[in-house]
Write a structure and sequence with these properties.
5-stranded antiparallel beta sheet; mainly beta; 5 strands; SH3 type barrels
Length: 65
């Protein structure tokens, strides 16, 4: 569990790695974060579309930059 699991506000504009049950699911730039830190939007890149992630989904978020 990373330090960002509770407060995603500091993630906007940063590159993150998302893991689920230890498996790498995606590496992406965070485009936007909801005011209550419960949602983040990943910027589209290449074949990956814009994606919304909710804290309740159980992803581990690690900042890469």
């Amino acid at each position: 569990m990373s330090e960002f699991d509770k407060n995603w506000q500091t993630l906007a504009g940063r590159t993150v790695e998302l893991r689920y049950e230890g498996r790498l699911m995606r590496t992406a730039e965070v485009e936007e974060v909801s005011a209550d830190s419960s949602l983040l939007w990943l910027r589209p890149h290449g074949n990956d579309h814009r994606q919304i992630i909710g804290q309740w989904e159980g992803y581990d978020v690690t900042v890469l930059d």
